């Protein structure tokens, strides 16, 4: 089932093939140095939007553990001559609902020397890991390493960046991560209904099954279109709205794809032996880390003065000005 992809001449297929090969060889513990070696940062300088999308979608499809958010932030920090000390690895943290607490994904076997986070007021700060005490967070996905850290509002040093710089990249990166996961999960469903026969024909020949998978395909493709728009918008007030729209669309795609693929898989989808639960667990953790909803999108749109928010595809929202 063909989903939305950038134009062939944009180089997406070549970058994605490189990323897929890397994750196939080493699905855990990919760090910034590994991405340097495959030339991802050079590609980001040439075609940043394509490089980011290919990296995160490939990670989602492979269920890989890698420092992708860290690399995304680092690439844009380098473009502004604000990168941390050369060779110093760092991890990106997201704010939580608890004041002074932040959470972030850390690639397996990697030890960040610093953490970058954005305060509720919009200031981006970097603080040495030596000054912090990360606490592991138990999740339903044993393949992810999530940490929770208490950080004072004045900790570390402030980076001269636009308000929302880090939050926007976290939302876009995790959105592509979820969409890559959903696209692969949809392939799992399509493969199953093609191979599984009932009443003398593939179950994919039945209209009800086709409708379920079509709903999932529309949700994923809608999310991809909105994700492209969010990356193209850049930083600023409208960038906040479009990144929120991308996150909401990716969250909806996960819900729709998970529900539809579980339905067409039937009983086998409930077993430990089938891979469905691995995608569902990963998606649940990423979706919770995104922590967005349509009310947040509506509020951001009103602050930005966007006159209307219209629905695209399977209910995914995007500001009308960004179409």
Automatic annotation (TrEMBL):
Membrane-traversing stretches: none
User: Where does the record place the Acyl-CoA dehydrogenase/oxidase C-terminal domain?
Assistant: 171-286
Matches recorded under SUPFAM superfamilies: Acyl-CoA dehydrogenase C-terminal domain-like (SSF47203)
Pfam families tied to this protein: Acyl-CoA_dh_1
Q: Give GO MF terms, alphabetically.
A: acyl-CoA dehydrogenase activity
Q: Which domain of life is it from?
A: Bacteria
What keywords are annotated for this sequence in UniProt?
A: FAD, Flavoprotein, Oxidoreductase
What InterPro entries is this protein classified in?
AcylCo_DH-like_C, AcylCo_DH/oxidase_C
**The protein's name:** Acyl-CoA dehydrogenase/oxidase C-terminal domain-containing protein
Q: Which organism is it from?
A: Nocardia jinanensis
């Amino acid at each position: 089932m063909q989903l939305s992809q950038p134009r062939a001449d944009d180089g997406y297929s070549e970058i994605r093939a490189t990323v897929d090969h890397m994750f196939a060889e080493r699905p855990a513990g990919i760090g910034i140095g590994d991405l340097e070696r495959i030339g991802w940062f050079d590609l980001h300088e040439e075609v940043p939007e394509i490089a980011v999308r290919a990296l995160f979608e490939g990670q989602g499809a492979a269920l890989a553990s890698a420092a992708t958010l860290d690399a995304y932030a680092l690439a844009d920090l380098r473009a502004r001559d604000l990168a941390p000390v050369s060779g110093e690895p760092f991890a990106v943290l997201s704010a939580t609902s608890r004041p002074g607490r932040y959470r972030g994904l850390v690639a397996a076997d990697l030890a960040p020397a610093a953490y970058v986070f954005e305060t509720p007021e919009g200031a981006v700060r970097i603080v040495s890991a030596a000054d912090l005490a990360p606490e592991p967070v138990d999740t339903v996905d044993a393949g992810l390493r999530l940490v929770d850290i208490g950080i004072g509002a004045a900790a570390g040093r402030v980076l001269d960046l636009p308000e929302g710089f880090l939050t926007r990249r976290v939302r876009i990166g995790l959105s592509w991560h979820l969409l890559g996961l959903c696209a692969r999960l949809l392939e799992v469903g399509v493969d199953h209904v093609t191979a599984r026969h009932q009443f003398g024909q593939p179950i994919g020949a039945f209209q009800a099954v086709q409708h379920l998978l079509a709903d999932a395909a529309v949700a994923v493709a809608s999310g991809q279109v909105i994700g492209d728009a969010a990356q193209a918008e850049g930083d600023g007030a409208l960038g906040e709205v479009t990144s929120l729209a991308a996150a909401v669309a990716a969250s909806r795609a996960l819900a729709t794809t998970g529900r539809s693929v579980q339905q067409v898989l039937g009983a086998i989808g409930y077993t430990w032996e089938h891979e469905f639960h691995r995608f569902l667990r990963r998606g649940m953790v990423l979706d919770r880390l995104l922590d967005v909803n349509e009310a947040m999108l509506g509020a951001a749109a009103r602050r930005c003065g966007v006159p209307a928010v219209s629905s695209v595809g399977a209910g995914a929202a995007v500001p009308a000005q960004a179409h």
